[in-house]
Amino acid sequence: MTTAVFIDGEAGTTGLRIRDRLSARGDIRLISLGEANRKDEIARRDAYAEADVAILCLPDDAARQAVMISGGTRLIDASTAHRVNAEWTYGMPELPDQRARIRTAQWVANVGCYATGAIAMLRPLTDARIVAHDHGAVLTGISGYTGGGKSLIAEYERGEAPDYYLYALKQGHKHLPEIMKYGGLTRRPLFQPAVGRFAQGMAVQLHLHADLLPGGVPGHARIEAALREAYRDEPFVSVASADERIDPQAMNGTNRMVLYVNGDGTGRVTVIAVLDNLGKGASGTAVQNLNLMIGAEEGAGLDPV
User: Fold this and answer.
1) Is the distance from CB of 121 to CB of 187 less than 8 angstroms?
2) Would you tell me the crossing angle of helices 284-294 and 13-22 to the nearest 10 degrees?
3) Alpha-carbon span 210 to 49, nearest angstrom
4) Is 57 a catalytic residue?
5) Do the strands 268-275 and 257-263 form a parallel or antiparallel pair, or are they unpaired?
6) Is the pLDDT of residue 244 over 80?
7) Is residue 125 within 8 Å of 223, Cβ to Cβ?
8) Which of 54, 75, 111, 113 is catalytic?
9) How confident is the model at residue 219 (pLDDT cuts 50, 70, 90)?
10) pLDDT per position as a tens digit, 181-215
11) Which of 25, 45, 159, 230 sees the fewest Cβ atoms within 10 Å?
12) CA–CA gap between residue 164 and residue 192 (Å, rounded)
């Protein structure tokens, strides 16, 4: 038996990488529309009707419209449109009990790239009450320019963009709602992202004064222990003590994420998540979610675990 999959938006950055991961699999039959029909509603309706699962790689408004024409097809949405919608299952398998929800879900909202790293760091700490739910968390991060979509990619490829810049300076980044909901925060965190002159890869940092957290324990040992416990059986997430240098491109081309924990022993701690914003932060997790939904091995089509 094969599963028919339609990638709506397969010509985009995320869609192409999902297609690459699925095209060689014998258990998947890809449904594809020619360029002339990709925006034709009748052709898209027919593709949805033929598919067992459809993956939406579309802007938010287009993703919402796609739901309306998808009929009863199971969906994975890679956009931001449905990530905090209670009718959708959040597509981050590493969250507690989330795999079971994803396996039976009709609609799955794929986790965002920055959110993947931020939630992976925060959730074990809020669950363990090491970080209070109302803590004023401080997050920073840098991503390759592919995270900005076609227009930003073109700007960098033309040599018109700066080597490095900060954005979302008004604290309105689109991933904040899901970071709060699934990271276990009730207070909106400070989050300062940046873009660098490299195509893909990402590092997200969580900055903490450990001695000001509940329990008042200085150093970072209990933070690292909580993260190691949370991910000890996870195939795609690992925890390490931080090196002197962290390369945001180290996980490129994989569905892996590494969490690094570092501190000076007196209470100042930085936790760092490194992942591929187009891999674990987008196409890799979409395929991971698809595998769960169709009963395939979770790592099928992904890098070796």
Assistant:
1) no
2) 50
3) 52
4) no
5) antiparallel
6) no
7) yes
8) 113
9) confident
10) 999 999 999 999 999 999 999 999 999 999 999 99
11) 159
12) 13
Superfamily of domain 3-111+281-294: NAD(P)-binding Rossmann-like Domain (3.40.50.720)
The mean per-residue pLDDT over the stretch 227-255 comes to 93
Please write down the HEC assignment for all residues of 126-183.
HHCCCCCCCCCCEEEEEEEHHHHHHHHHHHHHCCCCCCEEECCCCCCCCCHHHHHHHH
Residue 40: count of CB within 10 angstroms of its CB: 13
The yes-or-no verdict on residue 304 having pLDDT over 70 is no
- Fold held by 113-277: Dihydrodipicolinate Reductase; domain 2 (3.30.360)
Average pLDDT, the chain: 95
b/e code 174-194 from CB counts within 10 Å (16+ = b):
ebbebbbbbbbbeeebebbbe
Predicted confidence at residue 35, as pLDDT, reads 87
Contact 206, 194 (CB under 8 A): no
Domain ranges in the chain? 3-111+281-294, 113-277
